[in-house]
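Weekly modeling sync, notes
Attendees: AB, CL, MP (scribe)

Item 1: holo prediction request
CL wants a bound-state model with FE3-S4 cluster before deciding which constructs to order. AB pointed out that an apo prediction alone won't tell us much about the pocket. Agreed to run with the ligand included and paste results into these notes for async review.

Input as submitted:
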Amino acid sequence: TFVVGEDCIKCKHTDCVEVCPVDCFYEGPNFLVIHPDECIDCALCEPECPVDAIFSEDELPADQTEFMELNAELADIWPNITEKKDPPPDAEDWAGKPDKLQFLER
Ligand code: SF4
Ligand code: F3S
């Protein structure tokens, strides 16, 4: 499965949702997640993210392993998203910033 990692938090560009053939992205206030049981590993979303926030679970950085559980947990709670929308106005300011998990809104 593919996993949305920390770099998505407060960036949320949503380009990823447009290419997913099985529509398995789910949207929270400032972060998106992939439903691990629905993702078919097509890899189409990975290059679409402007901040490189999406990883194959095999390539998820060691310091982001908790995002696997987080994607699974939140995908069950949050609503589905299939159409791109504008990112937050300050998305550029947050691109690549470390330690953003503390800002995750549920
Ligand atoms: Fe969707 Fe493919 Fe990305 Fe999985 S890898 S979330 S199926 S676009
Ligand atoms: Fe997030 Fe990148 Fe998609 S910032 S919403 S994973 S395009």
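Recorded for review: The chain is about 20% helix and 10% strand.
Action items: CL to compare against the apo run; MP to circulate these notes.
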